[in-house]
Amino acid sequence: xxxxxxxxxxxxxxxxxxxxxxxxxxxxxxxxxxxxxxxxxxxxxxxxxxxxxxxxxxxxxxxxxxxxxxxxxxxxxxxxxxxxxxxxxxxxxxxxxxxxxxxxxxxxxxxxxxxxxxxxxxxxxxxxxxxxxxxxxxxxxxxxx
Length: 145
Fold this sequence. Notes:
Blueprint: H1 3-21, E1 43-47, H2 59-70, E2 78-82, H3 88-94, E3 99-103, E4 114-117, H4 120-125, H5 130-144
Parallel strand pairs: 1-2, 1-3, 3-4
Helix pairs in contact: 1-2
């Protein structure tokens, strides 16, 4: 697949996610899909329950890709991880990232660069979670600026 096709796919995915959330068209922006090998890790995305994991192909991963694209991130600038909650602190410390996004709404943190929201599998089953998730994603985007 050419880089032009990849860019079109990412833009379509991002725009579909924003449209599903009811975000106005004027907020849609282009996503830079140029991979950067030497770029530091921007975002660490962690799930604490491997059920319907986003680390494997499927609906859950597809939604996660759309969610990340909506805040101008792609899989080249994030690291996906599925770990046990008891290993979270050690894992985050060992994998320095500008922002950490934990996909588990029960996880709470007072760190300014650590966010938590609903897992994509939860959003698939309950579309009412989209708005709250979008608010967290906007905070992640702001933190990445």
